Amino acid sequence: MPSLAESISLISGDRPDHLTLQEQVYQRIRLDIMTGKFIPGKSVTIRGLAETLGTSPMPVREALRRLVAERALQLLPNRRVSVPAMTIEKYSELTAARVALEPLAAERALPHMDDAMVAKLTRLDAEVDEGIRLGDVELYLSKNLEFHFTMYRCGESQVIMPMIESLWLQMVPFLYLAMKRKGLGAIVDQHQEALSAIRNRDAAALAQSIRLDILDGVNRMPESEFVEES
Amino acid sequence: MPSLAESISLISGDRPDHLTLQEQVYQRIRLDIMTGKFIPGKSVTIRGLAETLGTSPMPVREALRRLVAERALQLLPNRRVSVPAMTIEKYSELTAARVALEPLAAERALPHMDDAMVAKLTRLDAEVDEGIRLGDVELYLSKNLEFHFTMYRCGESQVIMPMIESLWLQMVPFLYLAMKRKGLGAIVDQHQEALSAIRNRDAAALAQSIRLDILDGVNRMPESEFVEES
DNA sequence: CGCACCCCTTTGTGATCACATAATATAAAG
DNA sequence: CTTTATATTATGTGATCACAAAGGGGTGCG
């Protein structure tokens, strides 16, 4: 199991006891989506996936429907599903929504973060840097995801977290493919600033560092990566 | 078909051509949820709903799963689904998320609103006031929903709108029951302020009026309406 | 009177089948 | 060779069945 799979499993309810088949299928398909295994626009079929995964069409059906509801997949007018293509408009919307919600999640998490959590986040940030240094897209994306979600989860937000998860579910597949094609480049983040804001118990500074972290990473996306229309 | 039904159908894709059975079942169950037809915490069964709606369990199954993904229903550890009870923490989170997203949606919609839209919103606001004056919960909730969603939809936001829809889906059932029990009272809103901000093309003023509109309505909720824990 | 055990029912999950529709390949006509 | 018409296949949707697990109820024992 690749490293990205473990990190992605941080998203949304990982209840090991609750291992219904459709849940496993859901996790697997979601991982495949986030690591660019499906070509955007090309429709995925229930029976095809069922045969690949060695199950009946039933669990696949429910997993696909759930992923459509979470906006990781789109329902075409033909009733078929596919990975949606990324447009500039959608990307800017995703960014705007992230800027609106993630600083909020970080602020709500701050009171619940102790020294051990700061240490854990510091370690994760080091691994993010390692990924950047090596140009390892999987490592970078997985550890960056872990950094953000580990932080936000401290807030125990039952409403805001699922929304952030949905946003990443829509954003990551595109980032994965774009970075795989263009390389990581000289990515900068605001993790250090966020960490020192946490240590100082400075909610405003933390929120601001998260805002900048999102916008920093985003503005480096060349236009050539997007498709034309919705 | 009651008035609330038509307004609620403003939420999420209403494609009349696309009338698969599970879609109709979904719309119907969603309406029942928002009008308090299910007791929070009491589990709803697939077969029970199927019998009530006169279909096989299949479409109900998919509709329920979709509503769970949209957070209108919750999945209990027993694999059963129920309308989640409202807690103070959840309500404050819903409010925070609304304050974060809805002003954003309004700002994005502003450039696309013409005089006809202002006239339509003015008419809807009058109907909202009528609902308040009559103490008609259904009328108030449906027209208030229409007012907000008609405005936000002008922005053609494909990412932010579904998130706002999910928030209302979680909020409205609770409001419905609380207002039915306690009455509308002297509800105040910021619709007039929003309308004049639109006429002046003042994005900041519009965003602020939406913020206040959300917080105004929210702070009037007595604590006695909530349940104890999550 | 309270509590544990057992039986019957209900329920969610997964598999299989049937059908209508959309997609694709094939063939015929220009 | 292109294009249109046709036939064949593939696909989503809905229904039904099988099964294991959870719920509920009643009885017997402590």
UniProtKB/TrEMBL annotation, chains A, B:
Which PROSITE patterns does the UniProt record give? HTH_GNTR
Record-linked InterPro entries: GntR_C, TF_FadR/GntR_C, Tscrpt_reg_HTH_GntR, WH-like_DNA-bd_sf, WH_DNA-bd_sf
Residue ranges annotated for the HTH gntR-type domain, each copy included: 19-86
The alphabetized UniProt keywords are:
DNA-binding, Transcription, Transcription regulation
The reply to whether Cytoplasm figures as a keyword in the UniProt entry is no
Top-level lineage group:
Bacteria
The yes or no answer to whether the keyword Ribonucleoprotein is present is no
Pfam families for the chain: FCD, GntR
Q: Which Gene3D superfamilies match?
A: GntR ligand-binding domain-like (1.20.120.530), Winged helix-like DNA-binding domain superfamily/Winged helix DNA-binding domain (1.10.10.10)
Molecular-function GO term, any one: DNA-binding transcription factor activity
State the name under which the record lists this protein. GntR family transcriptional regulator
